[in-house]
Amino acid sequence: MKKTVTLVLLALSVGWYGCSSDGAKQRAEEAPTDPAAAVSQEEIHGTEVKEVVLSSPLDGAMVKQGKGIYDVKCGSCHRLDETKLVGPGWKGVTSRRKPEWIMNMILNVDMMLGKDAEAQKLLELCLVRMPNQNLSEAEARSMVEFMRSNDGEK
Amino acid sequence: MQLRSLSIFAAVAALGISLTGCKPKDAGSAIASDAAEKVYVAPGKHDEFYNFLSGGFNGQMSVYGIPSGRMLKIIPVFSVFPENGWGYSEETKPMLNTSHGFIPWDDLHHISLSQTKGEHDGRWAFGNANNTPRVARISLSTFRTEEILELPNSGGNHSSPFITENTEYVVASTRFSVPPDNQGDVPISTFKKNFKGYISFISVEPKTGRLSIKFQLKMPGISFDLARAGKGKSHGWFFFSCYNTEQASTLLEVNASQKDKDFILAVNWKKAEEYLKQGKGKIVPAKYAHNVYDESTHSANSTIINEVMTLDPKECPDLVYFMPCPKSPHGCDVDPTGEFIVGSGKLAAVIPVFSFDKILKAIASKSYDGNFDGIPVLKYESVLYGEVQKPGLGPLHTEFDGRGNAITSFFVSSELVKWNIKDLKVLDRVPTYYSPGHLSIPGGPTSKPHGKYVIAYNKITKDRYLPTGPELAQSAQLYDISGDKMKLLLDFPTVGEPHYAEAIPAALIEKNSKKIFKIEDNHHKYAAKGEKEAKVVREGNKVHVYMTAIRSHFTPDNIEGIRLGDEVYFHLTNLEQDWDVPHGFAVKGSNNAEILIMPGETQTLKWVPDRVGIVPIYCTDFCSALHQEMQGYVRVSPAGSTVPLTFSTGKVNPPDPADKVVKK
User: Fold this and answer.
1) Peptide bond before B556: cis, by omega within 30 degrees of 0?
2) How far is CA B436 from the centre of its chain?
3) Domain A60-150, classified CATH 1.10.760.10, yes or no
4) Which parts of the sequence are annotated with region: Disordered (chain B) (predicted)?
């Protein structure tokens, strides 16, 4: 038994030196994390909305859907009158902002706060980033319809 | 025999001295020269593997990135976790319910990651509770414990939660044999007659993962230590290491170390299924809890089950066989092909390797060496493929590199030893710091190991890190095994006491990792989906607060009309729908923990006020620039007070008339 212990101690004292160097550089190149996998999930913002076509009269179904979403996901911070709560009140928002701007604030808030001067001004005012509330593009479109209705359009 | 035990203790003692007195001079420098580069994961980059570690006596599971050794998460399983409210919130309390009532702690030893066709599929992790026998299933999408099943007729659920190659079964076998639960009042001295070692085969529903005990094998009273399922050609069989075949019930240290050979048990579980179909099973009374967490109601339910199916091998021939294995076997590991079963006798001088083909032949030719309590014992020579000679001292566990080699951990001689499965020759050995228990190779227990790294989880830390008083973090070491020689790359400290761990390619998990719970899918009974649904409802002395949280306020945040003697339930719904925006909730003087609420989720904190006064509440998880403002007040009035129940947020009170008088 003693002999074995001595052998083991000898083995313990043997170290390893010199081996090929690939390591971190190779790993960085291999990028084991697929960046596409991280951004393609539905919770992450979609692509930029470039053009929104509005029609009259208002789409009643969309207004109703927008109201339902407002109650669950928006009403905590936005009043329907001019009062600023956490975010600005919505009265008059459809005359102040283009529908594309509104939809991108809902769907692409990181992009808007990164490059849109008006959005940046609002952040300075409110100090809370407009949260991503995980709306689909169709749902965001219904918000525009609900806002138009809130602004008195028929 | 006692002499031999003594000499082993002497060796351990000698090694202990060497650790403190004369540790290897180059212990700090015995690393590969490019080690730093190999473990460096640049800021913002992700690790290549997830490593799921059992937490041992902390009762949790922890998640590390490999090769960086960075800790990513602790998943609470069997122990309460005040940090996020696990076991404290009303929704999670039922998860820790047992036939003994609520138990806040256990000892989680082993991990199994779910498999399909013998390979990791990234769906679930399983963990065992060693103390009050249970098995847990953890979702690898939410990284949360979804299910806990208690095991009747069992003690010391150590040989668990090992799984079959398509996750058909998770096994749980008893290390501390006990009499059946409903026949327990017997003298301890009647061990051989009355004590049994039950092995539970827990079926896993393929889609949902739901667990249920399919059957329990009623085995003689011995200790089942570890287990592995057969794979490939040996799929349909399960192998269990057994010790205390002496059937001692006292001073096991000596009395369970008498025999030169104990056993590995081979169970033909496909045969067991046939016997069940033939009606050979017997349903017996039992009492055990089954707890399930529902992701849509964000709540757990605990059900007590009152019977269990059992199979008695004495009535079912050709179901189980013992194979002699030197000596007090611990690890029992099956190679990727399913042909070789490696027994690691922790007091043995050799590592025996058994051949599945030879086992089948020995069974066919009835090459028996007597029987143990009526169960045939196969002849050692008939089932042995060969022995690894002089591998080291105190072999415990073996994993496989996928290139025909095995790596075994040696506790007493504190090293990992690589050997070839075919010719049984030792190829390489590296020291560990110090005295490893388990080891893990990514994919190591599957049919397709990834074989790039091996990680040793050590039992002794001593001088590896800055000292932190008498209690030290358990130490792990990462080695590169991609070449002929194993190379030490990294030390990393761990939490709790990791026993077994499994590592899995990140790609199998990260794409499925859940980011939020959709508020539309929240079916919690007390959810407030939007501030319009926020309210306070009194039902006798119970007050339910339907409260919402969003950056950065609670609704309601002013509540009056609570009375002493009330039980207040704060049901917090987080209205956020963005990744990584949890809110927290705490109440001054609450005899409870905080709760963390993930986006879209509802969680409940129960509070019983103990005095009259104004009680602040606040958000505990920094959520925005105005997080400090995320607070509120609750007024507690005496019992029988007539203060009406009111609640609000953002209500501005009219000026006090008294103030006007002063101003005039």
Assistant:
1) yes
2) 19
3) yes
4) 645-664
At B593, list the tokens: 């923990």
- B180: cis peptide before it, omega within 30°? no
Stretch 388-427 of chain B: residues touching chain A, C-beta under 8 Å: 390, 392-393, 413-415
Whole-prediction pTM value?
A: 0.89
DSSP string, B193-227: HH-EEEEEEEEE-TTT--EEEEEEEEEES-EEEEE
Contact criterion met (CB < 8 Å) for B553 and A86: yes
Return the residue in B7, B34, B141 with the most chain A beta carbons within 10 A, the one to mutate for interface testing. B34
**Chain B CB contacts of A75 below 8 Å:** 530-532
Among A11-20, B194-203, B345-354, B437-446, the range scoring the smallest mean pLDDT is A11-20
Give A44's contacts in chain B (Cβ within 8 Å).
515, 579
Q: Smallest CA–CA separation between A143 and chain B, in Å?
A: 16
What's the whole-number mean pLDDT along residues B34-41? Answer: 95
Burial class (CB in 10 A: 0-12, 13-18, 19+), B161: buried
Q: Pick the closest to residue B126 from B175, B61, B74 (CA basis).
A: B61
Q: Give just the sign of the alpha carbon dihedral B437, B442, B447, B451.
A: negative
Residue B348 pLDDT > 80, yes or no? yes
Task: Tell me: ipTM over 0.85.
Answer: no
Domains of chain B: 85-221+281-315 (2.130.10.10), 526-661 (2.60.40.420)
What are B380-437's pLDDT values in tens digits? 999 999 999 999 999 999 999 999 999 999 999 999 999 999 999 999 999 999 999 9
Chain B residues inside the 8 Å CB shell of A27: 41, 45, 48
CA distance B128 to B106: 9
List chain A residues with CB under 8 Å of B38: 22-24
